[in-house]
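Lecture notes, unit on binding sites. The following record was shown on slide 14. It pairs a sequence with zinc ion.
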Amino acid sequence: MTQQQLELNRSWWRGAARAVLLRCPRCGKGRVFRRLVIMNEQCAACHLTFDRGHGYWLGSMMFNMAFAMGAVVAVFVLTLVLTSPEPDWDLTIILVVTIALLSPLLFFPFSRTLWIAAERAARLRDGTESE
Ligand SMILES: [Zn+2]
């Protein structure tokens, strides 16, 4: 792995860590959201544009759906394992439906910030953006 690839990987992980904290993936200082679901247009500290136009959030929807599906499968398997050998199907259905409804809402801001970080890492790799 070359030095440039190592730096790109470090940049991605640094941006992802900042995204998990709902901070700007580039500088880590500016907040991406000013309220729970209301985003800032750009970072107050480094002026990174968060919304890059029509269709930009498709990737964040993919992240959100993947997380929701993973949470549903995890809760389903965990419930079955914990209630075996006689699975409690009523409890399983209640928990799975609850998680299926709530997890996309709870993960919404994180899917957005993680998408900004991932898309920015791709632009860094392509050379269309610099640190
Ligand atoms: Zn910033």
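Take-home: Residues 89-126 form the longest helix (38 residues).
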